[in-house]
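Researcher: Structure prediction, please.
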Amino acid sequence: MEEMPQRIDPSTDRAAAAVLLGCAPNQVGYCARCQGLTRRYGPTAQVVCAACRAAETAPPAPSADGSSI
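Model: Predicted structure follows.
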């Protein structure tokens, strides 16, 4: 099973976030949904971070009684 991408906290150093994202520090910006850090600028920019995109495509979690919502 694949692991869900993790949100990069906005208090993370931009240089460290850039290493995690594989981009230059000046390409790092805030996710439009969760305000975590993402590759916001440049040719392969994403307005929404990988964690938010993964949450969109994930199947719904079962509720406490075991049924899907």
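Model: The mean pLDDT is 88.
Researcher: Thanks, that helps.
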